[in-house]
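Late entry, written up from scratch paper. The run itself happened at the end of the previous shift, but nothing got recorded in the book at the time, so transcribing now.
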Amino acid sequence: MLIDQWLPTYDMREHHDVLIRATPEEVDSALRRTDLARSPLIRGLFAVRNLPSLRLGLTPARRRLTLDEFQATGFVLLADQPAVEMVLGVIGRFWTVRGELLPIGAAEFAAFGQPGYAKAALNFAIFPLAGDRTRLATETRVHCLDAASRRQFRGYWTLIGPFSGFVRREWLRLVRDTAEHS
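Output as recorded:
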């Protein structure tokens, strides 16, 4: 899997998948255009997460939450094989109020190793099945770059992890709905 090339070692891993009645190409198309803002719960969770930054005037409110919007917020496209797998990455101090995301490119992501930060990779992998069915899976990995950031991230993840899992499952559901009703 492509995610293995970008973040082979990690401190946290989360995996979710869904079966979709559509071809891999239809699933890929749906993944790229699905707007997470269609989900009131996701909009609410992102609004809560962004409250401190909005209050400080740092992050503009977003009306759409597509893969393109994720890249505009600090995620970098690390790998993209349409209808097979896409990998996004981000580096930051996720446990802080602002998240302190670093603007990086794919080459910087691979080489980055500064203590005090964590690297996260998120993929979407598409697996063709018989009868025009597809399994869409997403995996999130986080690698903390030193013991102090690992401790801070674990405390953060204890609180945020369940909500992150909900967002990933809801994202897959929205992609499934988009692919099956297009």
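Residues 2-180 form a domain with the Alpha-D-Glucose-1,6-Bisphosphate; Chain A, domain 4 fold (CATH 3.30.530).
(Scratch paper discarded after transcription.)
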